[in-house]
Amino acid sequence: MTTFFYNDAEYIVEPSGYNIRRVMPDGSTSFIGANLFPTLTASEAEAKAQALVKSIQPVGIKVVGPDISRPNMIGDLKIIGPDITRPNFIYWDKDSTSFSKTS
Amino acid sequence: MKMKDSVAIITGGGNGIGESVAKYLVQNGAKVAIVDMAQKNIDRVVGEIKAMGGEVIGVQANVTSEADTAKFIKATLDAFGKLNIVVACAGIIRDATMLSIDKDTGKVTRKMGLDKWQPVIDINLTGTFLTLRDGAEAMVNGGWEGLLVPISSVNKAGQIGQLNYSSTKVADALMPKIIVGEFQMRGIHNIRCVGIAPGYTATPMLTGMNQEILKGLLHDVQIGRLVQPEEVAALIGHCIENGAIDATTIEITGGLCYDHGIAK
Hints:
The complex is a heterodimer of chains A (about 100) and B (about 260). Chain A has one helix spanning about 40-55; strands at about 1-5, 10-15, 20-25, 30-35, 60-65, 70-75, 75-80, 90. Chain A is α+β, with helices and mostly antiparallel strands and about 100 residues long. Chain B has about 260 residues and is an alpha/beta fold. Chain B has a single domain (about 5-200, about 225-255), classed as NAD(P)-binding Rossmann-like Domain (Rossmann fold, 3-Layer(aba) Sandwich). Chain B is about 45% helix and about 15% strand. In chain B, α1 crosses α8 (about 230-240) and α4 (about 115-140) runs parallel beside α5 (about 165-185).
């Protein structure tokens, strides 16, 4: 079993079948994947595991999406839903590892 | 197309029909990506598929977000190297009549708000669109044979109390006609699209409801019971392997009827 840290979180890679788990703040673990990369060597599988973690848990992006708790108001009309004036991407200080920074 | 060694994305894969589809595909040799909003559900289903010996990833994502959709498509390609099957199971209900009328005054006392309308449209319709669109994009660019599966509902026929839900499900049912027509127009011949429209299915949404109301619903089902999620999964499995099924939406209802025996 190996572990690596990425974006302030610890990830566990179990060589037997290459299960990948994320260690949660309370110490429990959450699945990223299971029984992956059965035909790869250990080093190849670990590199693939790290790439997969970065895809699933990208740094620097928070997705907001339609927000029913914060409707737009037009007079008395509540407009809830995708709002192109309020983008889905909120960029933090770091660039995303998975998506190019465009704004 | 063979299920064995194919790669599938199942949105809403953390419970109900999506969970059953994922497990059915794994039992038949496919590799699967479980996409769900609830990490708890992902952990349970991924753990159970791991115990089955299946190859699986779990991605927490919101299907109404383009960023999240890109994320789970990329993660699937990173993990398994290709994509063949996309089943858009993620869906919700927020039932209400459009208007409520005061019996005494005859005046409107309440109307369906956007808080009940918009989330259903966003998840059931926009979410299905984004999932199928980006899944198809990956298949076309990768050159992989594929099947796109929007999940409709028998209530596409129009169910009172479900103006929001029925509107999305009739649109989902229509998608295979348009998508396949566009594929034909663009010279894409190795990707099919087949919708599935279940009737009353034994998902937590239904089995957890008032049992008296459930009994009343079953009165209208010819086989006298709920459709099992595994039966819906088996139908999707058949659609994967039967390459002639295309550009249509198939109902699986157990013979759901209107009153007086007219099949819905």
